[in-house]
Amino acid sequence: MIPRNDLLDEKSPEGLEVFQITTDSKVPASHLYMEAQIFTPDSKRLILHRSSDTHGRILSRTENCFLLCDLADKGRLIPITDEPGATSPSVSPDGSFFYYFVDGSDLGGGKIELKRRKIDGTSPETIMVLDGFLPGTKYRPSRLYPLSTISSDGLRLAISAFLGDGRTNASPFGLMVFDLGSASVDLIVQGVSWCNMHPQYCRSEDAKLSHDILIQENHGNIHDEKGSLRDGKGKLIQLAGALGADIHVISDDGMDFRNMPWGRNGDEHCQGHQCWRGRSEWAITSTVTKSVSEYQLIEGKAAPHVDHDGLKTADGIRNDLSRNFKKPDFYHFATDIEGNRFISDSGPDRESRCPLYFAELGEAGKDPLQNIRYLLAPRISWEKALHPHPFLSPDGTKAFFNSDESGTLQAYMLSGLPQKN
Description:
Methylamine Dehydrogenase, Chain H; 2 domains; five-stranded antiparallel β-sheet
């Protein structure tokens, strides 16, 4: 790591320090997505992605690998995969193992390997190979989602994929749940609207809650027969219809489908970014509210599903976390593992360049964000889907973000975060 306090400005809090973690000017590198489970529980080691953009897209298969960053050893970077198609990692809750997939699939063919290594990258082993139809279905998965998620007991891992054969229009996407002990897999939900699922296991250690997965449904999306959401020129076709996406919770046995009380009322739309609030059963989403042109942060609890009613869900419980912030403009965010500390980026303002904000979370379902403080402007271009995507270490003492301010996408760290007032 190299110090980069030149990225601070007169508004940055005293004691804040910036470090650039990755420094290869020839190969871009990035943090994984905000909700990705890539930290050891002691907050000393995390996973980064080499030759990737901020959304997990592999830029060069020959340069692609995952890196272990050892913060206890001055941020030393250790390559821990050597397979060109390595993707969708998760660190086990105890920090011992690194799970990932090697995607050698093709539309209607090829194979997908689920692998794991010790957290230092040694002792690679293949847990399961998918090279045929998913059990009890006529589907072969391909186009793996770049995010996987692991249960808080470390026994199950979930990931979404495209289920089409490359020839059939309106083919579905689906969510697969792997039992890591028995090396088996089940398809628990499938349909055309599950193209951007963001699956996230609840971090709670409660026996029932540990089976809950937060998932996003993009009603009205349009994709081609190959599962692509973009046309031949790379332009997004339609990610969601007029009322937008909604967010659900489902048990990993495919039962107990529920609604999160967000969006789909014609005014409030889910941006498509959400996360669990630490280990709790509360979750947070960012919204777009057209009537007042704001990008708000709303927390909520799941309620029984009757229809895809979003904000209008009966018995839905929600709380506007950003209500004390003048003109909310929040996009990507995360909490610490206790659900007490919070970080978010803001919009692509030409002058402020996506500023980062840090805050405390009060009583769930009641309090707004507290002690909101500006940290710095990451100076990221916000072009070609490059976003800061800030997140916190599990203990909430360090923050991480992406930026291409150097001319090449790199990963950064903040230490000396403000203490509670």
